[in-house]
Amino acid sequence: MPPRPAPATRASGRLVVMVSGTGSNLAALLAAHEDPAYGARVVAVVADRGGIRALEIARAAGIPTAVVSVKDFEDRAAWDAAVTETVAVFSPDLVVLAGFMKLFGATFLGRFGGRIVNTHPALLPSFPGAHGVRDALAYGVKITGCTVMVVDEGVDTGPILAQAAVPVEPHDDEATLHERIKAVEQVLLVEWVGRITREGLRVEGRHAFVG
Ligand code: GRF
């Protein structure tokens, strides 16, 4: 078998984690980064809004934080440029979107494209967007789950790295189902961020690999 090409990206371990919510995925990454063998460490947490639990978790862990809110800028392009500069200050090897609810523009993707990963609470390509859990429940699927993907310019359209399934229970509502998905999602995200860091990330068309 011919040798595989070298990884396009080998993350040496500096993670900038971007958040908009309760920070359960961030907390899982922070627990993992305590172990030097994990290979990655969270060097900053950047949010698109203040007053969220995720920022409290970051501060309690002594991680530098920044908030870059769309409302503080004239337009999305100006916000995109500002958030790019903010993240760049921390020289990330990998940008991890852990419940970050904004889409990036050309500036951010031009700077960090190919080394941004996101997590989504549904089995893509089904149920993309901001309401993946609600939409899966409304559709009546019996199995849903979560997806870790490489970010491209679309809404949850990037090459898929990993997925895990979660059964829908008969009496689930959005909150109960999302809680069970989040428990699985945290494990999946931690595992694949660690693998990218230790083994490198390679993207070939629609296909994303580590190693
Ligand atoms: C996760 O399920 C993520 O996939 C979705 O929002 C949730 C964020 O949870 N976009 P948390 O902020 O990590 O607790």
UniProtKB/TrEMBL annotation:
Gene Ontology MF terms: phosphoribosylglycinamide formyltransferase activity
Recorded catalytic activity of this chain's protein: N(1)-(5-phospho-beta-D-ribosyl)glycinamide + (6R)-10-formyltetrahydrofolate = N(2)-formyl-N(1)-(5-phospho-beta-D-ribosyl)glycinamide + (6S)-5,6,7,8-tetrahydrofolate + H(+)
Family per similarity comment: Belongs to the GART family.
Binding site for N(1)-(5-phospho-beta-D-ribosyl)glycinamide: 23-25
Pathway(s) where this gene product acts: Purine metabolism; IMP biosynthesis via de novo pathway; N(2)-formyl-N(1)-(5-phospho-D-ribosyl)glycinamide from N(1)-(5-phospho-D-ribosyl)glycinamide (10-formyl THF route): step 1/1
Active site per UniProt: 120
Name listed for the protein in its UniProt record: Phosphoribosylglycinamide formyltransferase
Group of enzyme by EC: transferase
Record SUPFAM superfamilies: Formyltransferase
Record keyword Membrane present: no
Domain Formyl transferase N-terminal: 14-191
Positions of transmembrane segments: none
Residue numbers binding (6R)-10-formyltetrahydrofolate: 76, 118
Gene name of the encoded protein: purN
